[in-house]
Amino acid sequence: MATFTRGFHGKRRGGDDRLPPGQYLTDDFPVLSAGPTPQILPSEWEFTVETETGQVHRRSWQELMALPSETPTVDIHCVTTWSKLDTTWQGVSLDVLLEDVETAAEYALVHSYGGYTTNLPLEDLLDGKAWIAYRYDGEELHPQHGGPARLLVPHLYFWKSAKWVRGLQLLNEDSPGFWETAGYNNYGDPWREQRYADD
Amino acid sequence: MSADYLDGNALAGPLAEIFTTDVSAAVGRCASCGLTGPVASLRVYGPAPGLVARCPGCNEVMLRLVRSPDAAWLDLCGTACLRIPMESAEGNSP
C-alpha cells in the first residue's frame, strides 16, 4: 500500500493547518446570541459611518445593493472553539464603503441593531479584510445569522463580525465594545488564541 | 423578536460559583427602567460566549457573566440594586 507524507499534499482542505489553536471543525453554523433577534426590514435598514469630526455618511439598503459586491470564501472561527471552513458570502467590501470617507481615525466601534457593539482597529476593516455581508451560502442572510446584513471580519474571532450591523463610529481613541468590556480580548486574533482579556 | 432565552433560574448555578447565597432568589431593580422583580424572572441569553440577563420589561442588559478557565467577569452595571435574602443577623447585633 502506498503511503504519503503530509508534505506532498499541499494545503489540505479542512486540514489542521487551517485550524487555529484550541478550535474544532464543525459543519453546522451554531447561533449564539446576547439578546433577542432584531427583525429589520431592508426598507428600514441603513448603514451609517460617523467620523471623528462628526460627519455622518448614510447608505440605504438600495444604495448598498447598487455598490459593487464581492463573493468571499473564508474560514470563520468562533471564540467558543468552533471553526467552519470555506464559508461563502456576498457583500460589499468596507474599502468601497469607506472610499469617500475622510478620516484620520485609528479605531472603529461597530454598532448593531439591538444595541450590540464591538471594537477593532480601523486598519482591520480595510485592504480586503472586511465586508458588509448580505448573502450566505447563496441565500439571503437569515436574521438569526445577522440578516439583513452583518459585518464579516474573518481574520478575527467571529464575535467581531457583528450581526445586524447598522454603522461604524470612527474614533481617535479605542472604545471597547459589548464583549470586550466583559472579559473578552480587545483584539481577538484566533491564531494567537486571544480569547479573554488577559490572553 | 424570537423567544430564544431562558429564565433567570439559569443564573443560579454559574452565580453560585461566585456568591455564597442564591442570587437567583434575590430581587433586582433595573437601572434602565426601574422595574423591580426576582432575578429568576430575567431573560437569560447564552451561556456562550457569556450569560446575558435582560430586564423582562425593557430588554436592557442587567447582568453579564463571562467565565474563562481561570476567571469570571461579572458586570452588574444594569442592576441598580439587589435585595438578597439573608439569614437573620440578630445574633451579630451589637
* CATH-defined architecture of chain A: Alpha-Beta Complex
How confident is the prediction overall: mean pLDDT of chain A?
A: 93
Return the CATH topology of chain A: Sulfite Oxidase, Chain A, domain 2
For the terminal residues of chain A, how far apart are their CA atoms? Answer: 45 Å
Stretches of chain B where pLDDT is under 50 for at least 5 consecutive residues are none
Q: How many individual β-strands of chain B?
A: 8
Q: How far is it from the N-terminal to the C-terminal residue of chain B, by CA? A: 53 Å
CATH first level of chain A: which class?
A: Alpha Beta
Output the structural class of chain A: mainly beta
Helical residue percent of chain B? under 10%
> Count of helical segments of chain A?
2
In short:
The complex is a heterodimer of chains A (199) and B (94). Chain A is mainly beta and 199 residues long.
What does this structure look like?
The complex is a heterodimer of chains A (199) and B (94). With 199 residues, chain A is mainly beta. Chain A has a single domain, classed as Sulfite Oxidase, Chain A, domain 2 (Alpha-Beta Complex), CATH 3.90.420.10. Helices cover 5% and strands 29% of the residues of chain A. In chain A, the strands form 2 sheets. In chain A, strands 1, 4, 5, 8, 9 and 10 form a 6-stranded mixed sheet that branches. A 5-stranded mixed sheet of chain A has the order 3-2-11-6-7. The radius of gyration of chain A is 17 Å and the shape is globular. Residues 1-13 of chain A have low confidence and may be disordered. Chain B has one domain (6-83). Helices cover 5% and strands 36% of the residues of chain B. Chain B is globular and about 40 Å long. The mean pLDDT of chain B is 92.
